[in-house]
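Can't paste images in this forum, so I'm doing it all in text. The chain is below; anyone willing to post the predicted structure tokens underneath?
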Amino acid sequence: MDQLNLYGKRFDSRLLVGTALYPSPAIMRESVAASGAQIITLSLRRQSPEQQQGKMLWAYIQESGCQLLPNTAGCKTPKEVVALAEMSREIFATDWLKLEVIGDDYNLQPDPFGLVESARELVRRGFKVLPYCTDDLVVCQKLLDAGCEVLMPWGAPIGTGRGLMNKYNLRTLRERLPGVPLIIDAGIGAPSQAAQAMEMGFDAVLLNTAIAKARNPVLMADAFRLAVESGRAAHNAGLMLQRQTASPSTPTLDMPFWQQTALADAGE
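Text version of the structure:
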């Protein structure tokens, strides 16, 4: 089976989903199940089991069987990141961490310098770090040098739904880092965009808003599941090369004259 391998752990699903913004805990639970996701992201600030209003969410998260991926959402400095990461490891009992260090409040663009510094320290402390980063090749290489084994470049700024805005940079990442698991994180707004990312050879897609804010989150979660699966299958099958000139789908070379005439009459 074509499984996703992250930090030595294998997963059947290549769709990662968030647990925020849903209309209710029940809809969140149904949506995650419909997505087929085996990795779910969560925020210590939103999902803390110590908070009464988070009890239903926390109960599902505990029984889901999914790999938990706490994030450091809202952190702006390495010091904040490390403090929140250690709290998350203690509360959620996992050393997996989605690293976020926000450098700009307007488009929530990651701070490349803070990311690399934070990643280096977190790896030293034994965390399995999945950094949310831009599509900058040099920054990605620095994160790998810091000890990250997985990278999560954005398709577009968080919550915009604009899809893969810089396909040149993303293709460059995929070509230059062939052995590194790359997960498109942020900016995906439609199943077709998720399928396109998978067709380009990315290993997985992580999203939240596009499902949670849909008119029917459960149905949308299923649509994204199918899109990721079909995109991966298309990549493995090998997409046809794009051409500048037309090419007949029914070649006429070495065909009898009467068959060529019939094809011409049929408009082929």
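The two ends are 40 Å apart (CA to CA). DSSP finds eleven helices and ten strands in the chain.
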